[in-house]
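To whoever picks this up:

The nightly regression suite flagged Magnesium transporter as changed. Nothing in the input moved, so I suspect the structure step. Input below, exactly as stored in the fixture:
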Amino acid sequence: MSFLALRSLDVKMAQPFGADYSSYYANGIGRDNARGPGFPGLKKRNHHLGNRSWILIDAKGNSEVVELDKPTVMRRCLLPSRDLRLLDPLFIHPSSILGRDKAIVVSLEQIRCIITADEVILKNSVEDSVLQYKYELCKRLEVSRDNYDDLPFEFRALEVALEHTCMSLDAQTKDLELDIYPVLDELASSISTLNLERVRRFKGSLLALTQRVQKVCVEIEHLMNDDGDMAEMYLTEKKERRDILTDSDVCNLINDAKFRSKSAPVSPVGSSSGVHRLQRAFSTMSSTKHGSFLSSSSSGENIDQLEMLLEAYFVGIDNTLNKLLSLKEYIDDTEDLINIKLGNVQNQLIKFELLLRAATFVTAMFAAVAAVFGMNFEDTVFDEASTFNWVLVISGICCGVLYGLFLAYFRNKKVIP
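Regenerated output under the current build:
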C-alpha cells in the first residue's frame, strides 16, 4: 500500500510539470533554448544544404547560371563531401587536382570547378579570374566544334584552368620583379628607413606568392609521378567503355533469353521466375564485368597525352618558381650587402671612439697637471711668470708623445689603418 501511495504521489507531482513542460515547448521558448546559446560565427547544419550559384558549361560552349545544393552536386558527379569542401570559398585550401570516377575536382587559385565528361560545373563568382576562365573556355569550345581537336573535353577544360593559373602567377611575378628591383638597387646605394620598410613589405608579398606557386608546382608534379591518378582523369574514355559494356550485356542477355524461349517451353510461373533470375544475373554480371573491364583498361591506359599536357605547364610554373627563388636570392644578397655596409660603418665608429678615448685620456693628464699647480702651496715656480710656461710646454709635449704611442700601438695591432 505504501508503494502504491508513493507511486500515485509521483504521478500527481509529474502532471503539472509535464503540462508546464509541454506548454513551454508549445510556446516556442523551449525550442529556442534547446538549440543552445548559439554562436554568431557558427553555421547551422542545414545552412550547408542551401542552394549555391554555379555556372554550367557544356561541350558546345554554352553556359548558364543555375542554383544547385550540395547533395545534388554530390549525386550528379558522384563525389564525396570532402571533395566539395575544396570548392568552398570560405575555406583556404592549397591548390589541388583530384581525379575521381566520373569527375575531376579542380581547385587552382580562384578557379574552383568540377569537370565531367560532358560539362564543367564552375563556382560562380564576381572575380575576374572566374569570368576570364568562363569566357576563354566557351570560346575554345566553340572554335573546337569547327576544328578537329584530339583532346577530350575534360582535358580542354583542365588545360584552360592550368593555362590561366600559370599565366596569372607569372604576371604577378613579373609585376613584383618590376617593383622590387629598383627598390633593392636604391636600398643598396642609400640605406634609409623608408627603403627598408618598402623592402620588408615586398618580401612578405614575395613569400606569399612563392608559397602559392610552389603549391601549384607540387600538385602538377605529384600528378605526373602517379600514373593511376592520371588514368582516372580519362573521363570520356571511361564513359564510352561503360556505355559499350552496358549495350553488350543487354544484347547478350536478350539473345540468351530468346534462345531459351525457343529451346524449351516453360510455364508462366517458371517464366516469371526466369525473368527475375535473368535480372539478377544481369546485375551481377554487369557489375563484375564493369569493374574488371575498367580496372584492366585503366591499368594499361595510355597516359602520354595527359602527361605531355601536364609537363608543358609544369615547365612554365617551374620557370615562374625559379624567378621567385632568384628574386629571393637577390633580396638575400642585398641584405648581406647592407649588413656588410652597416658592419663597416660600425667598425669606423668603434675606431673613432677608440681614438677619442685616447685623446680624452691624454687631455685628462694635462688637466691633472694644471690641477696640481692650481693648489694653494708655495714653490719657486710661481716666483717668475715665464717659469710656469715651461711647465705647460713640457706637459703638452709629454701628452703629445703619449698620444703618439697610443697611435703606434693601435697601428701595430691593426686596429686602425
